[in-house]
Amino acid sequence: MREGFRVLKWIDIPPAWLAAGIAATWGIDRLFPGLATGLAWVEWLGAALALTGVGAMALGAFELVRHHTTFIPRRLPTAFVRQGIYRISRNPIYLGDALVLAGAALWWDVLPALLLVPGFVALINGRFILGEEAGLVARFGAEAEAWFARVRRWI
Questions:
Q1: Where are the domains of the chain?
Q2: pTM of the full predicted structure?
Q3: Where are the transmembrane segments (predicted)?
């Protein structure tokens, strides 16, 4: 029984939720193939969003690694990173995930799947971000609260 809980804890990470969202997008496309707009610019916009998302994730991870702190959710940070992309977004990696999900929906031309994006954002907020922000306040106090007041959670 304990092994099952360990597996569930391992699966409950943002990349798994992103993969589930992408799989759901693909499933919607396969179940309802007539939903496509057929517009080429939709595919190009999807590619641009996905690439922007991957870039945001890479820049966010780079800053965390550069400051020798974790990018693993629910682990206590050892440094308070506010440089680079963290001047624009408190959560560039999660923002990148959301952009990749939106990009996949547009790339595959499955516009109804864009409704998955707000659900993904709400899930990430509730399961990860709120706890991580509480951990930052517990560890870094007023410094974290001041940063929260200056920099938006997503963008």
A1: 2-150
A2: 0.91
A3: 7-28, 40-65
